[in-house]
Amino acid sequence: MSASSQAKAAQARTEEFQTDKPVHYIVQNLERAYGVPENERSSDPLDMLVKIILSQATSDTNSHRTFAALKKRFPTWDAALRARTATIADTIRSGGLANQKAQVIKDILRQIKQEHGTLDLSFLHDFDEEAAINYLKQFRGIGPKTIACTLLFACRKEVFPLDTHIFRVLRRVGLIPQKCTDQRAHQIMNRTVPKRKFYSFHVNLIRHGRAICRPREPLCERCPIVEYCDYGQTVI
Ligand code: SF4
């Protein structure tokens, strides 16, 4: 099957999946339980892209620490671009996967500099969602979650990011199919969630996945969305 046929088949499968869950009530119940997080200010997209890369496979505390260390060691992205990849890796060592992350960061900086002559992605603020996604997709080592987080958090674009906590909760609830690629899940959620609630739902699903809908032994008896959850209905 050609790439375009595969893309069309994936799109058709995404359109086929329809949930009958009242998503707005699920959003609302989570907001009652965890608050209404607001994404109030836009920020620098390149800073955010690097932050999200550093957040992979580590805790929030570690990723904040490694980003602060990186900015302290390299006050400008030009300084980071001039540095050896090994020096970047040493600077972010405490966040894990340091060599891999350093290589991704270095490659991105090099590519942006070559294409634009300056290390600045603020033009993404002016792109529409599709153009911004397509732009970020070209970088090696950048997946749908990193792209969506960068665009939602820094540019306040209407793109819904999923992480492992969110995947688990959504599968258990039945908002995405049990077998579902990252890309398909992103497409389904982009279509299903009210756009003005992308940020709130994203943040609260992570909170929920950490506090209640844990990987092992979810606390369904204390869950604020149990009435809408396929898995919860089988155990309560
Ligand atoms: S009912 Fe249980 S499985 Fe469903 S979302 Fe709540 S904690 Fe997770």
Descriptive overview:
With about 240 residues, the chain is mainly alpha-helical. The chain has helices at about 5-15, 25-35, 45-55, 60-75, 75-80, 85-90, 100-115, 130-135, 145-155, 165-175, 180-190, 200-210, 230-235. α1 packs across α11 (about 180-190), α3 crosses α4 and α6 (about 85-90) crosses α7 (about 100-115). It is globular, with a radius of gyration of 19 Å. The model has no long low-confidence stretch (mean pLDDT about 90).
Quick description:
The protein is mainly alpha-helical.
What secondary-structure arrangement, pairings included, does this model have?
Elements: H1 3-16, H2 23-34, H3 45-54, H4 60-73, H5 77-82, H6 85-91, H7 98-116, H8 129-137, H9 144-155, H10 164-173, H11 182-192, H12 198-211, H13 230-235
Bound molecules: iron/sulfur cluster.
The site of iron/sulfur cluster has 14 residues, from helix 10 and helix 13.
Keywords:
Endonuclease Iii, domain 2, 0% strand, binds iron/sulfur cluster, 236 residues, mainly alpha, 13 helices
CATH class membership of the largest domain:
Mainly Alpha
Question: What structural class results from the helix and strand content?
Answer: mainly alpha
The beta-strand count equals 0
Percent helix, as a range, is: 55-70%
Rg measurement, Å: 19 Å
Query: Helix and strand succession?
Result: HHHHHHHHHHHHH
> What molecules are bound to this protein?
iron/sulfur cluster
**Low-confidence region ranges:** none
- So, CATH architecture of the largest domain? Orthogonal Bundle
